Amino acid sequence: MTTVTDPPVTAPAALPAPPTPRRLRPGKRLVSALYAVGLPLALTAVWALAVRQQWQLPLGIDMRFVPSPAEVVTRIADLAVGSGEATSGTLWRHTAASALRVLNGFLIAAALAIPLGLLIGRIRVVERLLDSTVGLLRPIPVTAWAPLALLLIGFGDRSTIFLIVIAAFFPILVNTIAGASAVSPRLLEAAAMLGTPAWKSFFTVVLPSSMRSITAGLRVGLGLAWVVLVVGETVGIRTGLGALITQARDMSRTDIIVAGMIVIGLAGLASDRLLTLTLRAATRNRPGLV
After folding, report:
1. What element of type H or E holds 57?
2. Spatial contact of 255 and 71, defined as CB atoms under 8 Å apart
3. 3-state class of 62 per DSSP?
C-alpha cells in the first residue's frame, strides 16, 4: 500500500520592495545646475555685449536705450531693499499683491474647469451641449475681454481677477477634457464589477487617470495667469507688478520695466515649481499621476 504525501508547502514569495528614489551624485547635480543656468547666463552675456556695442536689432530695436544687466540687477536690489527713490523698497508689496490676484483667479478657474472638463469628457450629453459654446468662447483673446470687464466690473482687483480666470480657465478645461475622454473603458468596467457606483468612479478612476493631462493644463493656465496679470494691472490699480511697470513706462524708466519683467518671470517660475510640488504631495508622489 502506497502512501500519498502532499507536496511541501512553500512560503509565498515576498513582494519586491518599491524602488527607492535615486539621489543625484554631486557631479551630476553640478551638471544639472549647469544645464539649468547655462542658457540664461549665455543670454545675459549676449545682452550685455549688445548694450555695450549698441547693436541695432531687427524690428528697429536700438540697444542704446536698453539697460544693461548690471543696471537691472542694481534696480532690482533697490526695489527690494533700497530707500533712495519713490519706488525703492516696494518690490515685496507689489509682488505680494500680484501673487494674491494670480492665486485667486487661478483657484477659481481650476475649481470651475476641472469638474466641467470631467463631465464634458465622460458624458456625451454634456459634451454635445457645451462643445460648441466652448469652441466659440475659447478663441476670444483676453485683451478683448478687458474693456468689457472695466465697464461691467469697474477698476480694481475684481476686474483683474476676472481676466485671470478667463485666461486660465480654457487651458485647464481643454486638457481636462482630453484626459477624461482618454480614460480606458476597461478601467471603468473593472470598477463597476467591483461594485463602484458610476458617480464614485469619477473620483476613483476618471480623475486619477486624467491627472497627468490636468497637471499640464494647470501649469499652462498658471503661466497665462501671470501673463494676463500685467494687462489687468495697467488701469486703475496702483499696487502690483503690472502697475509698477505701467508707472515706469510713464516715467520712461526702462530699468524698472525690465526689472519688473524679470521679477514676473521669477515669480511665475517659483509658482510653477510650487504647483508641481503640491500636486505631487496630493497624489503621494505616485508615478504616472503627475
Report:
1. strand 56-57
2. yes
3. strand
Residue 272 CB burial class (10 angstroms; 0-12, 13-18, ≥19): middle
Count the helices and strands in the chain (H runs, E runs).
12, 2
pLDDT in tens, 202-238: 777 888 888 899 999 999 999 999 999 988 888 778 8
> Which grid coordinates belong to 109?
478657474
DSSP type of residue 235: S
Q: Distance from CA of residue 15 to its chain's centroid?
A: 38
Beta bridge partners, 56, equal 62
Digit-coded pLDDT (tens) for 44-64:
898 889 889 888 888 888 888
Check whether 22 has a pLDDT greater than 70.
Answer: no
pLDDT score of 138 more than 50? yes
C-alpha cell at 122: 465622460
The per-residue b/e assignment along 184-215, b for 16 or more CB within 10 angstroms, e otherwise, is: eeeebeebeeeeeeeeebbeebbbbbbbebbb
**Cα 252 to Cα 67, 70, 79, 84, 88, distances in angstroms:** 12, 18, 16, 18, 16
| Angle, helix 157-181 to helix 91-122, in steps of 10 degrees | 40
Q: Which amino acid is at 249?
A: R
Please provide the average confidence, as pLDDT, over all residues in the chain.
Answer: 84
Do the beta carbons of residue 134 and residue 127 sit within 8 Å? no
The residues pairing with 62 across neighbouring beta strands, listed in sequence order, are 56
Q: Provide the sign of the torsion angle of the four alpha carbons 207, 212, 216, 218, taken in this order.
A: positive
* Residue 233 to residues 142, 256, 281, Cα–Cα distance (Å): 13, 16, 33
Which pLDDT tens digit goes with each residue over 140-184?
998 899 888 888 888 888 999 999 999 999 999 999 999 888 887
Q: How many CB atoms lie within 10 A of CB 116?
A: 18
d(CA 138, CA 187): 31
